[in-house]
Amino acid sequence: MNDLTRLSAHEMTALLRSGEVSSQALTEAHLAVAERQNRALNAWLAIYRADALAQATAADERIAEARHEGAAALNALHPLCGVPIGLKDLVSVKGGQATAGSKILQGYIAPFDSTVTARLRQAGAVILGKTNMDEFAMGSSCEHSAYGPTANPWDLTRVPGGSSGGSAAAVAAYHVPVSIGTDTGGSIRQPASLCGIVGLKPTYGRVSRYGIVAFASSLDQIGPFARDARDAAILLHAISGRDARDATSAPVEVPDELLKLPTSDDEAAGYLRGRRIALPREYFVEGMEPGVAARVREAVAAMEQAGAKVEEVSLPHTEYGLATYYIIAPAECSSNLARFDGVKYGLSDRTSGEYIADYLRTRGAGFGPEVKRRIMLGTYALSAGYYDAYYLKAQKVRTLIKADFDAVWAAGFDAICAPTSPTVAFPMGAKMADPVAMYLSDACTLPVNMAGLPGVSIPAGLSDGLPVGLQIIGAPWSELSMLRLARAYEGITARAPWRDLEPAELQLTDDPTTPSPIERKERLNAGASATGSGKA
Amino acid sequence: MTVAQAAGKSGALEKYEAVIGIEIHCQLKTVSKMFCGCSTDIDGAAPNSHCCPVCLGLPGVLPTINKAAVEFVIATGFAIEATVASTTRWDRKNYFYPDLPKGYQISQYQLPLAANGRLTFDTSDGPFTVRVNRAHLEEDTGRLIHQDLDGRRVSLIDFNRSGMPLMEIVTEPNIRTAEQARRYAEELRLLMRTIGASDAEMENGQMRVEANVSIRPIGREAFGTRVEVKNMNSMRAVERAIAFEIERQAVAIDAGESIHMETRGWDEGSQSTYHMRPKEEENDYRYFPEPDLPPLLTTPEWLAEIKARLPELPATRRTRYREAYGLSAYDAGVLVNDAAATALFEGALAAGAGVPAKLLANWVTGEYMRLAKGEGSGGSTDPAELAALVKLVAAGAISGTNAKEIFAEHFASGAKVAAIVESRGFRQISDAGALGAAIDTVLAANPAAVADYRAGTLAAIGFLVGQVMKATRGQANAAMVQTALRERLDKV
Ligand SMILES: [Zn+2]
Prior knowledge:
The complex is a heterodimer. By secondary structure, chain A is an alpha/beta fold. Chain A has helices at about 10-20, 25-40, 50-70, 70-75, 115-125, 165-170, 190-195, 230-240, 265-270, 290-305, 320-335, 355-365, 370-380, 390-410, 435-440, 445-450, 480-490, 515-535, and strands at about 45, 85-90, 125-130, 180-185, 200, 220-225, 275-280, 310-315, 415-420, 455-465, 465-475. Chain A has a single domain (about 1-320, about 400-510), classed as Amidase signature (AS) domain (Amidase signature (AS) enzymes). In chain A, strands 1-3-2-4-6-5-10-11-9-7-8 form an 11-stranded mixed sheet, sandwiched between helices. Chain A starts with 8 loop residues before the first helix and ends with a helix. Chain B has 3 domains: about 5-35 and about 60-140 and about 165-300, no CATH class; about 315-425, no CATH class; about 430-490, Orthogonal Bundle (Arc Repressor Mutant, subunit A). In chain B, about 40% of the residues lie in helices and about 20% in strands. Chain B has a 9-stranded mixed sheet. In chain B, strands 5-4-15 form a 3-stranded antiparallel sheet, with no helix packed on it. At the A-B interface, helix 11 and helix 12 of A face loops of B. The site of zinc ion has 8 residues of chain B, from loops.
């Protein structure tokens, strides 16, 4: 074993069970690289060395016991037993922080496990730490974190995408084989695309939201990041299923076939034969980088070559997606974030002696500009006299967007293929001054949230040396067939040269002279204010 | 009926009609809170001892519905002849206050569980029907406690009450008098207790009554300016506060003053309402559908099941008591309005075959209720024993006076009626020979009364009966004594 961090989760499973490697060794190897490189990447907000090693020891004991009992007991273990994992810092882990990337939750310690956390513990996964994110999952670049931006390991001057940028960068940089993110408008798929990994947003209701700090309740879903489809499927399997604590989680069976995606590339590729794939013309939008469009069309052509039937379709209400999303998501967040008032936990300014004034001070100091912008948008959209014109109208458009997709499934398509992000990773600071430009990063992903559908972004090559993601969108509860498609695409591109590439600037993260993303941001800000004063 | 009757004091009130709407919050009697598993047994509990991440509104928590609470509201809906929704929804009511941990309250705005109901009850002017606009479910808030701590004025928060299930019942403004308002609240309280939905004790906040009161010149359609009255902690306070408010508004209008939109509190000490806060504009609560809870479908099967489980309701029971047992409307009302009395009455009827219902009802509304409400009334009554006692009285086996003594002893000690009769030697003297001797003695000892009677003062016989009863230590059959006395006095 040259470098344990280069293993996929399913490779780790095999080695753990055969006894060739211990979870202790795996965990130590991943901790070492995460601790060493985090200064240059800022992917982690917390690394739990002692807890992780304790969990690894427990996993090793479980595996040893099962091995002693026999093959059946060993197979009954979840494949994630003993495998290190990272959690976005809005997942509640009992006794740990859950900042949601915000100053307002500084000092808050969750007194309970989220359902996802509990299921991961049950599976025996080793929680390495908490990853960086845009504040309250609002953003597409990870630059809206109150704890500094995360760098993209492919180009440290660029963003990893967001909001789950830390989770994506950590997997891309081999700090963990898999991690957990959340996706409200693209926050798993877009950073997966920008970091060159797999990121899946499940069907709304597939994964319990209990214990996940909420952004927009009707859109939020929790999902896996991984470096291949098989690992994504394994992690999805561990966290899915009805939870009595989440009334919106659905009593839909979690297929065990998620644990048995084909190992052989050729066998995997066979799944494409006869599949009907829809290519929505509205998703090749103006402003899309030609390199991105080209990679996506090439990927679809390769699938066609392998036996899939590809047809162009229309999703006519796509153009209204962004506008309606930016009414519904802020409306829900304006209410969800009302609890952060400084009375019970986190940041609290009690200097005024009057509660409303204390609220204003606490929230004024605790929330960043993007969060404030969305709270204001949402409060406005829900106000008396505006509710019908904005919120109610947006809900109606939402049903039209969903109907667009329903028509595609009714026509017998197995999946929709589209770009994940209109661009490759963009430079830090490039879109911070223009919120709408930032919002457009999610134009191809947020309709999927509006319709409650599953979507996965998988690597589809590079454009100008940076990863491009292919988005596969499926009908509700079709995660298994989407992941089989994703695995099939891996099969037909297994020998493509870009498959062997590691993130181009990963080596730099070991160099102590490499500036940290926080330093980069400070320089950018200094530059911007210099320009600003020049203008004045 | 008139407003003057309700408010009473001012002649000016003859000119005005009151328009009253009532909002009642009832704490539902569920085992756990509305949206989490915390126990509702919070009375006297240490602050913040009955809380969990959900009712504290910690980041990431989600509500789950307490089915029992929903069923109580549906049952109430059926009991007030309301339309029960086939689909209901939860809405968020957004506002900031330290006792509201999530910054919003989960309530029902657009699709309440029950709508368009009514409740009919007796008043001193006869039956009256209040139209109920809606009954819906929501969660309670925490409680602020203001106190001095280490020399500083502080506000402490107790979240034990946070997330307790509340039913809010809102009437149409078709109530016209303070008495109607009180009677409505009383009848609703009785209904809650009968259904088992709430203990509805006003004193400890399980039932909170608020009234919207305005007046208008009799004959005018348009409503006057409405004032909200709060802090009424008893049924008596409800009636007095509303009567006071009607009077206050009438006097003010007559004096050429205008009424302001405001919230007023009832002050028990001064028996008057006082200004609490202005109510310039309706708050914008930015209601929107609660995205954490899917709409709730109430299937016809489920509704039928809840309906079938409903106990006999007070109105039905009163009618039955009148029709089946010949009770007066008043007695039926007194019996039914007291849950313990109803239970005793029903229990005694069930336990004692052939016990005369009307006589039994008199005993329950009379002796039982007198003792039960008495000072330090730690006693109890076994329905079977009461039935046995009433049967003895009806058969003439013991006198009414002795029966009261026996009942009092049973109430205090729980001893069996038969045992008390035995040990005290209470056995009614209905033997003509034994009575004759006692009567002879009394007649001989009271020549003046005998003379009065014979001279035409017939009432003197009452005195003589009393003397015989006294001589027999109450054991004589009073009716027989009277007949025997008459026979002897009229003979000569
Ligand atoms: Zn609770």
